[in-house]
Amino acid sequence: MKNGRLSNLASRDGTRTVLASIVSILIGLVVGAIIVLIVGLTSDNLSLTSAWEGIRLIFGGIFSTGRDSAGALTFGFNPTNLGNMLFRATPLIMTGLSVAVAYKTGLFNIGAPGQYLMGTMASLMLALGIPSTVVPAWIIWIIAFLGGILAGALWGAIPGMLKALLNINEVIACIMTNWIAANVVTWAFEISNFKNLVESTKSSYIYKTTFNGVETPKLGLDLLFPNSQVNGGIIIAILIAVLMYVVMNKTTLGYELKACGSNRHAARYAGINDKRNIILSMAIAGGLSGAGAALYYLAGNTEFFWSTYTSLPATGFNGIPVALLAANNPIGVVFTGIFMSMLDIAGLQLTSLTAYNEYITDVIIAVIVYLSAFSLVIKMLISGRKKKKHAAAADAAASGSAPAEAATSAGDDGAAEEPLPPGEGPGEDTEAETGKGGVEA
To answer: Could you tell me which CATH number the domain at 79-341 has?
Structure first.
């Protein structure tokens, strides 16, 4: 019975998707370890010992506790690293959800960086612009959070409208809106009064929201992960991921959005407003990216560098591998976002504890992204192996049952079969049924 259940579980498409993601992760980690080893063996400043330390940090950097008095790496429960991992995972989860939801509806949202920037601008301006002496800080936080979501949604709706009304490819539209957002945000903060003038060395930064007494509540997580940046934002992100799973899989709206993604013209024929749903899909995706920015900068311990016109935030682009690795499943995005954040922490550990730099983890992420893009091939390879195993088992069962069948035939003493009554032979039965069918037709 258990074997049957395990066999059914292994044959499911979801199981093969998870296995394909795990294979991608393992291959990416192995490639990173090989790179560390090659660099360690070929560099004059490094050795095999330092390469081994780098490999250990790649696989377990989140549990690194530094070095002991003898200079050896130590590992154990590190609440600071774990808390920082959850904090950094929060915007990744949100941008991953943004990409995943759009992809479920047949759209590729590469505009998450621009939507993230617009959410950043709106949330920071509201959090710093509304005086906390007049309005309670917790109400300002809610207004700023909702404002970030709304700004991201409006910015995401622009490529959605271009796609729905003018059939302009959303990728091209998103790229354009990304750079427009970068320049708009730079201009808006350039003429604003939110630049950090208190700390003279940080004139290109915006004030932290704590300057106005606004910050995301810790919800007791600071007690579990002391000396870290973690706050209640990770809980909000997880709840939003669950909400998006319910919306996409258990509601009429989710069904209509996915129907438009599967076949826009068929959905329209079925009475679904495809144009409205395309715009709505991109608006939801933009709102999720804006929410990620709001949760990150409303934490109160992060600073925004306002001169962004020369680059786009990496968090927006990193949502793409998060979604790919999760196979665009909102619940899976939570785990892949945390995993990507764990690699980020491992990279920082590499930089601070060894002669390696954190960009090695970028190589690992790049390999995982490429393999995630080929996840269908990996799933086919996994399915092929399972089919071969099932075929071998079936052949073995057939060869084992053949002698038994022969013995049974021999034990019949050669008795002749009794003739079938008229009308019960195979040919007659088929003809009769055919005749009946012809009459009914």
So the answer is: 1.10.3470
